[in-house]
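Entry 14. Ran structure prediction on the chain below.
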Amino acid sequence: MSSVQQTITRLRELRLTSMAEAYSSQLQQPKLHQLSFDDRFGLLVEHEASERESKKLKRLVQGAGFPETTSLEDADYRPARGIDKSVVASLANCEWVRQQLNLIIIGATGVGKTWLACAFGAQVCRLRLPVAFYRASDLYGDIAVAAHDGSLPKLKANLIKPSLLIIDDFGLGTITPQAAQVLLDVVDRRMRSSSLLITSQYPTDQWHGFFPDPTVADAILDRVVHQSHRISLKGESMRKFQAKQRMRKE
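Output, structure tokens:
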């Protein structure tokens, strides 16, 4: 085995796979041989770092559990939707997450609440911060199952840990007394260290009625609603709009 091959093998053994690939690629590009050792080595290190960052981002996005892949750059700002582009732009830097504030997105079924929530979640992932996405009704089911099989502490830890917790379609599904208590525990812990993003078809003044216990409702909503930015979406269902667009193209 040549010394070059030994070096490549050794890099792979050290789990510097991307650097090994970059080194192998450099050997096939004569122009790069004109660079100094420091410059060539710098390119190898940069390639390894870039690949690691890319893989970390991919792991964060996959781990978040987003139901769809979206990006704020692709947001639809047609006037009928009522989205203030300047508001979205001001929130895109995710400083609100660093400040442990929340974001509430309100709108009728199909107007793009989940899409926008996923886009903000992906933006937070780009900052190398962990995100978790839950549909509200699925979350209540997960809480019931976890309470039954003894894994509730683990579930609560998974809800508390991410820098951003997204609860989609709040107001759908029944909040049991047990689920309400878990939500209170999670919200209470998160308000001191992280952020929530909640989407709902219902305005916040109706949220109180979703909880079985008014006292718990007050405690949760006081921690969430009053520390939130808000976006209200309007217009027709995006699914209907996209279906019309496809029909026009056919």
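Strands lie at 102-106, 131-135, 164-170, 195-200, 228-232. Will compare against last week's run tomorrow.
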